[in-house]
Amino acid sequence: MPPKASELTPEDTTAAANDTTAKIVADAQMAIADAAKRIEAAVQQGLEQVRAQSRVYADVASEQIDEASRVASEQIRARPLAATGAALGVGVLIGLLLASRR
Fold first, then answer.
1. pLDDT by residue (tens digit) across 23-43?
2. Which residues, including other chains, have CB under 8 Å from residue 16's CB and lie 6 or more apart?
3. End-to-end Cα, the chain, rounded Å
4. What's the half-sphere exposure (Cβ side, CA atoms, 13 Å) at 36?
5. Could you tell me if 67 and 59 are in contact, meaning their C-beta atoms sit under 8 angstroms apart?
6. How far, in Å, are 3, 8, 63, 86 from residue 23 at the CA level?
7. C-beta of residue 76 within 8 angstroms of C-beta of residue 83
8. SS3 per residue for 4-58
9. So what's the pLDDT on residue 102?
10. Model pTM greater than 0.85?
11. Residue 78: helix, strand or coil by DSSP?
């Protein structure tokens, strides 16, 4: 049977408060640890989704670059003089732009 409030000494009250505080701190630490684990799992899942999606985007971009390269190569082979003229024009334009900055 617990002692009556009038029978408790200050030391008993302090010890009981310390025990209660220790239990509250332990519960808070467990709650924080559980929350950290849940957050870590959510972040890991998000990273995996981003990795998977970026792989898809990289594959699509790679296919589009390959297709553009193939088309450009075909156009250059079909019209070599036009391609040379276009390259020369672009080179001159870039040269003029760079020269105008000085």
1. 999 999 999 999 999 999 999
2. 8
3. 95
4. 6
5. no
6. 21, 21, 60, 79
7. yes
8. CHHHCCHHHHHHHHHHHHHHHHHHHHHHHHHHHHHHHHHHHHHHHHHHHHHHHHH
9. 64
10. no
11. helix
